[in-house]
Amino acid sequence: FFSKTVAAALTLRRERMRLQVTPGAFRHKQYVTGCGWVGNELYTCSDDKTVHKVSPDGEDQGKVTDLDSCPTDLHWFPSGNKRQQSDQFAMACSDGTFLLVLRNGRVEKKVDAHKGAVISLRWSNEGTAIGTAGEDGVVKIWSRSGMLRSTLATVDSSVYSLSWSPDSNQICFTCGKDIIVKPLQPQAKQLQWKAHDGTVLKVDWNPVNGLVVSGGEDRKYKVWDGFGRLMFQSKPLEFAITAAAWSPNGELFAVGMYDSIRLCDRTGWTYSREHVPMGSVSAISWSSDCTQLAGAGADGGLVFGQVLDRREEWQNISVLLKDTNKVVVHDILGEMEEELDFRDRVINLSVGYGHLVVTTSLQCCIYSLQNLNTPHIFDLKETVNYVQLSDKYMLMVDSSGMQVYSYEGRPVAAPKFQGMRAETLNSQTVAMGSECLAVIDHADPKMVRIFEASTGKELGKPIQHVLDVVSVSLNRWGSAAHRKCVIIDRNRDLYVCPVGQAASGKDSVPPPFKLGAMCDAATWNTDNDMLSAIMDGKLVVWYYPNVVFVDRDLVNQVKFTKEASDLGKDPQILHFHGTSVTVRRSDGTQLVSAVSPYPTALYGIVQRSMWEQAIQLCRYVKDSTLWACLAVMALADKELSTAEVAFAAIDEVAKLQYVLSIKEIPTVEGRNAELALWRRRPEEAEQLLLQAGLMYRCIDMHIRLFHWDRALELAVHHKTHVDTVLMMRERYLEAMGRREETNPKFRQYREGVEIDYNKIMAKIEQEKEKEASRPGARPYQEGY
Questions:
Q1: Closest by alpha carbon to 211, among 174, 153, 265, 160?
Q2: What is the pLDDT of residues 157-213, one digit of tens each?
Q3: Phi, psi of 222 (to 5 degrees)
Q4: Which pairs from 663-668 meet CB under 8 Å and 24+ separation?
């Protein structure tokens, strides 16, 4: 089946995002020890005992303040949004103190903190505390106002760097060749591991992706998860790693060494290496919009880097950020290329579903790919951190939260929930569908909330998982009733859960169903309902994932698996368009694997209810996988004759016989109830039968399911067929070899009810005739 249509995986290219570095005109007289962005201004501190304010193009904006001792580090108080920027920063000094300094340079407070120099300090992510570390090997926690809260740790070597955990309940710091993660709770156990072969000089823990980057004197940089497991390590470079910093969104990080800065992907591989003749890079700071960084040098100089050549693709359209305010759109099939110029720096770009969305520092521009000359433009209140597109709406995330817009630029909704943190919303934690969106609750990562896109209201109860959810994705094919989401939890298990009930206004959402384990990534197809995943070194594609909610016995029969051991560690699926799955390996190389075109063709045929043509396609292809897909699709749409042909083709005799028995049921409600039972929804089947007044069929269903208590309860409540239930129960006990009745309810009713086999069978026949003579009762027909 696959060999008929698929060639070997094809290497496309390696992404070449680059860092455009320009030296700043301003220079300190001595070693620059720290730098930090606030808005569009960079504050720097140096061994010349001064703090300066520098513009993004490297021009000096004036001296902020003079100091009594040499500063060693600088960190701004976490800012809320563009309109309420930070007005205070903390600065470590070589005399054992740290300073709380206002934006205008006035020193609010000077705190004696350590014996010897304070080497590193950081605000917590919420700005409620300050962590300091010094030459004395002591790590301390201070209140926002500079009052000592606790002495967290004391080690036998100088602590060169520290960083807070995403939830601000732990601190990661260096200790010689080791990295230590110390919880703030006194009784909690700390985590310590050997990280480098030389002294660890820098650590940075990203609050969004939860990963730690470290660099040391062994000339390597490494990426760790929050539990100390190695995710990536570089080969030995030319010089010791003296600086490392994550971008705020966790997608990139930069490392600095002697005369060099590297721009790296979150998985560790290098996008570009830039030569910066400034001696050892002592500090790196990213702007809040993640588009530029600043590096401080040992010779007193500064460099400014712009992240360029970012590329987004959708079908035959490729979009490239060529310069800070220039975007190039290339139509590969139409051989069209057009340049779009913007007056401000481009922050985000996203393409998909016939639209291109570009956000700058001040505006959002929405283009139709059919006409790039007349975009919809509106002003932004905040800098947009993330954009996600769907076929009907687009989702934008800024420091104030989530906003849903139409493609005309009209605000549609602003979903919110208690405890929502905008900085945690990214491609892994939020998923946009046609009518709804799914968001992982950061306060309780076991919970996934579903919101209506058009109103922003929460739909039904959240999806409750047993472990922390790290990734969520929504399908976009079909109506709201077909909406499903896949989640990957902390154990890397892959689950699928229907959210169609919530999207349709129903409260209950069935529990997630496990599709597999050891999952690195999962993505829905943009054109149909296929799902692709990378699991345990294999590329797995489910041609019809809805099978788990129709007939989960056929899950493996609608699945295609291909060995993909060449993908390496931590591969990511970038796109799943049509029949092509684009995967990025851990070294940045992109590979494309093709899947069979026949399931895609089957989706198009079934969507138009052309069941005879669907059967003809399957007979032409002659593959059991496609027949299994058609069988389940037919069951989902209640096309029993098509399902009969498909089950016969894959030799599912028991299922074929069940389909034939369902076709013999004279009433629509009875057939629907049996199909609900096939989907393992007995409560729904019972509700259908009770609403239709088919009491005997409902009681008989529970007898067949061995739900004896419920069958007796219904018979007693409706005062019918109590003797039938008792007789069937006796026959069941005899078949099981049990003579005595142990259920007290059955013993109670058995004493007062006469069981006459002939009368009961006659009554059953009457019920069948009564059902067949009901108004609207008719034999099964296609499309009923």
A1: 265
A2: 999 999 999 989 999 999 999 999 999 998 899 999 999 999 999 999 999 889 999
A3: -135, 155
A4: 663/779, 663/780, 664/780, 665/780, 666/771, 666/772, 666/774, 666/777, 666/778, 666/779, 667/692, 667/694, 667/771, 667/774, 667/776, 667/777, 668/776, 668/784
Q: Above 60 in pLDDT, residue 771? A: yes
Q: In what order do the strands lie in the sheet with 363-368?
A: 346-352, 355-360, 363-368, 371-379
Name the residue among 522, 35, 530, 503 with its Cα closest to residue 293: 35
Q: Would you state the pLDDT for residue 8?
A: 35
How far, in Å, CA of 77 to CA of 747, rounded? 74
Is 161 in contact with 178 (CB distance < 8 Å)? no
Angle at 290 (CA atoms; ends 287, 293), nearest 5 degrees = 50
* Chain centroid, CA 94 distance in Å: 43
Confidence (pTM): 0.86
Distance CA 725, CA 56 (A): 82
User: How would residue 739 be classed by pLDDT, with cut points 50, 70 and 90?
Assistant: confident
The answer to whether 67 and 93 are in contact (CB under 8 A) is yes
Pairwise CA distance, residues 735 & 746, whole Å: 17
Beta bridge partners of 71: 93
Cβ contacts of residue 151 below 8 Å, gap of 6+?
Answer: 138, 139, 140, 141
List 129's β-bridge partners, or say none: 143
- CA gap 318, 150 in Å, rounded: 53
Is residue 462 within 8 Å of 469, Cβ to Cβ? no
Least confident of 66-80, 503-517, 685-699: 503-517
Sheet order of strands, 559-563 included: 519-524, 531-535, 538-542, 559-563
- 3-class DSSP state of 289: coil
Q: Which of 157, 105, 146 is nearest to 123 (CA)?
A: 146
